[in-house]
Structure formats: C-alpha cells, structure tokens
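Hey team,

Sharing the Aspartate carbamoyltransferase run so nobody has to redo it. Sequence (306 residues) first:
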Amino acid sequence: LIHLLSTEGLSRDILTHILDTATNFVSINDREVKKVPLLRGKSVFNLFFENSTRTRTTFEIAAKRLSADVLNLDISRSSTAKGETLLDTIANLSAMAADLFVVRHSQSGAPYLIAQHVAPHVHVVNAGDGRHGHPTQGLLDMYTIRHYKKDFTNLSVAIVGDVLHSRVARSDIHALTTLGCPDLRVVGPSTLVPENFSAMGARVVHSLDEGIRDADVIIMLRLQNERMSGALLPSSQEYFKKFGLTPERLRLAKPDAIVMHPGPINRGVEIASEVVDGDQSVILPQVTFGIAVRMAVMSIVAGNEA
Ligand code: CP
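Structure output:
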C-alpha cells in the first residue's frame, strides 16, 4: 500500500492487516501509548482544506507517536487564498522534503490528483474528500465494530441518516461488504438515501423503526447541510421526529447494540442527547481508536510496518 485513498478495492486481507496493526497501538485503560520510531526522520504534512476537529488532531497525535515531524498547514492563512493552485501548493511543500501528505478537501478526488503528481517516495492519505470517501474513518469504524462485536460475518449493521452526502457511509459500506457483513441497511428519507445504494450491497430502508430493528450496530450520520441545496434541506425538528435516534427507538435494536457516530454530532437533530451519552454509545471510543488506526495506516504506507 503506497497511498490510502479509499476503502473501495482494499482486500479483506489488507483491511484485516491494518486493523491488526492498529491493535499494537491501542491502549484504552492506560492512555499512554508509548512513542515508537516507525516514522522517525519522516515529515508528515497535514493539509486540511476543509474544517476538522477529530481527524486533524488524531492524525497529528498519531504522527507524533510514530516519531514523525509534523507540520499543520493553516490553509486559511496560506497562499491558497492568493490563488495558488492545489498542485503548486503541493509542489512547493514537496520541495520542503515532505514524506506523507494527509489531505482533506471539499472536492471529491483531490487526494487522487495529488497522488498522481507527487514523487514515487511520497505518500498520500485521504482524510476526507467531498462526498467520495473518508477511508481512515471507515477503518476506525471497522476497528470499533470488531472491538465490540468480534466478527463481521454475523452482524446486522444500520447506517442511518444523510447517506447521500456522506463520505463516511461510502467508506463504511465498502469496508463492511468486503469484511463479510451479511446484513447491511442504509436508512433514511428517500431524498437522502436513494435506491441506487442497493447496488453497493446495502438494503435501502426508508423507515427508521424497520431499519434499526434487531440491529447489532447503528451508525448515525449528521445532516451534511453544507453539501445540500434548498430542496433537500429538511427542517431539524421534522427530521428528528422521523429519523432521530431516541432511547425508545433504540430499544428496537438488539439489547447489546452499539451506537456509533463519526462526529460532529448534532444533538436533537439526528440523535437524542440521552443516546449520545448513554450506555450503548461508543462515540468517544471511536475517536480514541482513531489514533491507533491512523498510526497503523501511516506506518504501513510509509514503509516501516509495526
Ligand atoms: N469524523 C470526522 O471526520 O470528524 P472531523 O470533521 O472533526 O474531522
């Protein structure tokens, strides 16, 4: 693996190898994951052309724990604002001996474009591009599911909400189908969950109650208002009434079902606060696992495996 641009096309062996590698870096109880020298002498450039809290900071922590030198380019203060193109920006940063670019961009495909133009020894990791993909989120979601449920081949998983605009949903669907999940449902209104998602191997369901019934895993998604135009925008209250996950509705799922969310959450829109903060929520462990998964990805693509 030279770059990580998508979960689509990754084999079950590679997905499992990344998850297994991440287990070496996880330490939930004593939070001190020791620093390892796997990226010593390498420079990681975090390029976030779109806002981020979790992904940017966990990539930074992960790179530091791998002993890399990390540079976070402040895009809003960069010469991008003066009209410098994406590829010229990359060429200039490459001239500063970057080894690995972590890229988030509002345009689907931007990390692919960069990967086509960097030198062969430079690696690119997609940290979310448009609505296309968010592969490390997909991988940390798989890590979380495997941690709590052990195996994918007997699971019912429901992905609920604005699937249409969600790069997380696409990355999760590719990974879950490859890992053998036999019952994958995408759940939401027809405007946000079109029928063509069935071509990806998921069952399309337009009722929340039906979609989460007897599920082992529920992945809730935020309404991506920034990617919608007027006609699609539902009112928050109306949406919550029909598709918000409440404690009452959660009782339709298996009693030991876990509730996930990639964040940022909008309490009272797609999910009730009681569920976010409840016993079945694993939303914050997802964030913690993200560090280990990103350590695994960077150590694998940059050539020094754990
Ligand atoms: N899950 C996720 O990508 O969160 P951020 O946008 O905060 O990075």
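The mean pLDDT is 94.

Ping me if you want the raw files.
A.
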